């Protein structure tokens, strides 16, 4: 079964994103590199996961946004997070550092991920199972099952059509 993938953008960025020239939503780079634990890229909702999470949590977020359909390239190389252990093993493999809760070097990890993958996906099962793991808050910040793609060449956007 093919997944429904959506990406939300500010209305004023819709046309540029549809033309493939969209940019990652970003904050001050220095702040992001020092404190951000989520990768930077195009964030995709999987089968309405983001839309479902917004309901009752952050309804106002949709104001001024438009929804685009996202399509991934057949040859996209996604790191799919299936378990917490698999994720921590990948962290160690790429950084050479033992994962230690909040003291993990997320910036270095995401830089290394970009060298090997086009993006990453967190499945629902490990997200919900470890979301409130106080010694490991990485999954909490994702909010729901989702995909982050940083290789712009591996994603295309289309206007949503109603069926």
Could you explain the architecture of this structure?
The protein is α+β, with helices and mostly antiparallel strands. It has one domain. Helices cover 29% and strands 22% of the residues. It is built from 6 helices and 7 strands. It has helices at 14-18, 29-35, 49-54, 84-95, 106-116, 124-130; strands at residues 5-10, 42-46, 65-72, 78-81, 119-122, 146-149, 155-159. A 7-stranded mixed sheet has the order 4-5-6-2-1-3-7. The longest helix has 12 residues, at 84-95. The relative contact order is 0.24. The mean pLDDT is 88.
Number of helices: 6
Distance between the termini: 18 Å
Q: Into which percentage range does the β-strand content fall?
A: 15-25%
Largest sheet: 7 strands, mixed
- How many strands appear in the DSSP assignment? 7
Mean pLDDT: 88
What is the H-and-E element order? Answer: EHHEHEEHHEHEE
> Fraction of residues in helices?
25-40%
Shape: globular
List low-pLDDT spans. none
Radius of gyration: 16 Å
Quick summary:
With 163 residues, the protein is α+β, with helices and mostly antiparallel strands. It has 6 helices and 7 strands; from the N terminus they run βααβαββααβαββ. The longest helix has 12 residues, at 84-95.
List the main descriptive attributes of the protein structure presented here.
163 residues, alpha+beta, 7-stranded mixed sheet, 29% helix
């Amino acid at each position: 079964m093919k997944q429904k993938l959506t990406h939300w953008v500010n209305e004023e960025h819709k046309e540029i994103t549809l033309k493939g020239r969209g940019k990652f939503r970003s904050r001050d780079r220095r702040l992001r590199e020092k404190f951000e634990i989520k990768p930077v890229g195009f964030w995709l909702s999987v089968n309405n996961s983001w839309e479902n999470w917004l309901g009752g949590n952050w309804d106002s977020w949709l104001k001024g946004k438009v929804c685009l359909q996202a399509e991934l390239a057949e040859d996209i190389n996604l790191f799919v997070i299936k378990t917490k252990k698999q994720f921590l093993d990948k962290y160690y493999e790429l950084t050479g550092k033992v994962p230690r809760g909040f003291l993990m070097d997320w910036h270095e990890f995401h830089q290394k991920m970009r060298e090997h993958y086009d993006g990453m996906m967190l499945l629902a099962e490990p997200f919900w199972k470890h979301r409130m793991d106080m010694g490991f808050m990485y999954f909490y910040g994702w909010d729901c099952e989702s995909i982050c793609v940083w290789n712009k060449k591996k994603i295309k956007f289309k206007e949503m059509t109603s069926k």
